[in-house]
Amino acid sequence: MSKRAVLEVIALDVEDAVAAQAGGADRLELVTDMAADGLSPAPATVAGIRAAVDIDLRVMLRLADGFAAGDVERLVRVAGELREAGADQFVLGFLDADGEVDLAAVERVAGALDGCAWTFHRAIDRAADRDALRKQLADLPGLDTYLTAGSATGVDDGLPTLVAEVTRRGEPGYDQTLLVGGGLRLEHVRPLCNAGVDAFHIGGAARSAGWAGPVSAEAVAGWRSVLDGLTA
Questions:
Q1: CB 33 within 8 Å of CB 70
Q2: The CATH number of the domain where 181 resides is what?
Q3: Tens digits of per-residue pLDDT, 133-156?
Q4: Cα–Cα distance, 206 to 23 (Å, whole number)
Q5: What's the rounded Cα separation, in Å, for the pair 10 and 137?
Q6: Could you tell me which residues are beta bridge partners of residue 68?
Q7: Which segment of the chain is annotated as a signal peptide (predicted)?
Q8: Which of 24, 25, 42 minimizes the C-alpha distance to 33?
Q9: How far apart (Å, rounded) are the C-alpha atoms in residues 53 and 86?
């Protein structure tokens, strides 16, 4: 039997969050500063959104543009502040200069989350070896999702990789949910669903005016309708 696909929407503020929930989003990714591809939001923003909606929230742990961890102890402090503000799910991912997973940084930050669920984000799309990264992270507590386009350039180029990876569920490193996002368009949804993908992530596509405007409940509802038609 098919199951309802997960629809995750990027939210920058309370207005975005309320509209995304009204449109049928299952979960929000909370960030700030999309010019830097999404950084950690302020604790006050997280608290305000947590009070305004009752769907799941995943909060970004990222202090600067790029995929280097930077100041890991500061990241740990930020994680603590966000948890105090009501965050209990997170998004993170760090690579070193060679494109290998920065395992020490990921382990340190994930350990500070004390079992909270978290997503390894699109750093995987910049990794030198996706398979090796997955296997290195396979047993980390809390890791239940990879956000990926299958390619650094987006779903158009990454579709074959996504289809191949979703068929590997059950292998070491491939038990986590494949959450597809990054240049995702509605035309991609059918082939991804047919392959077994059941989680989707949208940002600009949830905004009628793109990043210049807020999340549109109607735009989110359009995605919800398509997903439900294919998977519900």
A1: no
A2: 3.20.20.380
A3: 999 999 999 999 999 999 999 999
A4: 9
A5: 25
A6: none
A7: none
A8: 42
A9: 12
